[in-house]
Amino acid sequence: MMPDIEMDPTRVAVIGVHWQHDVVSPDGLFGPYFADQVARHRVASYAARLMAAVRSSGGLVVHSRIAFRPGYPDLIANTPAFATIGEQRGFLDGDPKTEIIDEVAPQVGDIVFTHARLTAFFGTELDVILRARGVKTVLLTGVATNLSVAGTAFEAVNHGYRMVVVSDACAAATDEMHRVTLEGIGLLGQVVTTDDVVRGLTG
């Protein structure tokens, strides 16, 4: 049975979480954890198709990227990942590796947020912009499923949005982490495929 993913396309936003070279490219700081999974499952191609469908149907495409100011005054190294960023001097704003990969590159009309913490809502004006646009449904894609994507999903729920994670447009360090995380997220929102969303936008 196909998931019921009917929605008003003009009240939909897709959020691309951390589609940056430093996260998903082999030579990125965290590439050794995620690049192989992203490439093997062709995850970026699904994210690109999803974003194109949302744009063409009148919805909003949002890109969330993490980057830090020179000297890292905005870096709080309270996790191993953030400590690694500080030690390796990664994610420095202006470095090409902090930019979003070409396959899902922002287009005219898209919104791009730069932030210094784990998730897309925290410390940004994302909620304000979504509400100004009348967005009711948030579609999530990106890396990593069990970290920034899941965290953003929980924030979307707390902000009152209908939360949908697009399973084939996300990736984690392992298939098992991806699968288990989606099972948990499914208790709070919907977990669907890119095909399901495209069908819901056009159906």
* Cα-to-Cα separation, first versus last residue: 16 Å
CATH level 1 class label: Alpha Beta
Number of strands: 6
Strands of the largest sheet, in order across it? Answer: 3-2-1-4-5-6
Number of helices: 8
Order of helices and strands: EHHHEHEHEHEHEH
Strand content: 15-25%
* Low-pLDDT residue intervals, each spanning 5 or more residues: none
CATH topology: Rossmann fold
The percent of residues in helical segments reads: 25-40%
In the residues, how many domains can be counted?
A: 1
**Structure classification:** alpha/beta
In the CATH hierarchy, what is the superfamily?
Isochorismatase-like
Computed CA radius of gyration, to the nearest angstrom: 16 Å
Main sheet makeup: 6 strands, parallel
Shape: globular
**Which whole number gives the mean pLDDT?**
95
Task: Give the topology.
Blueprint: E1 12-17, H1 21-24, H2 31-40, H3 43-56, E2 60-66, H4 80-88, E3 111-115, H5 126-132, E4 137-143, H6 145-158, E5 162-171, H7 175-185, E6 190-192, H8 194-202
Parallel strand pairs: 1-2, 1-4, 2-3, 4-5, 5-6
In short:
The chain has 203 residues and is of the alpha/beta class. It has helices at 21-24, 31-40, 43-56, 80-88, 126-132, 145-158, 175-185, 194-202, and strands at residues 12-17, 60-66, 111-115, 137-143, 162-171, 190-192.
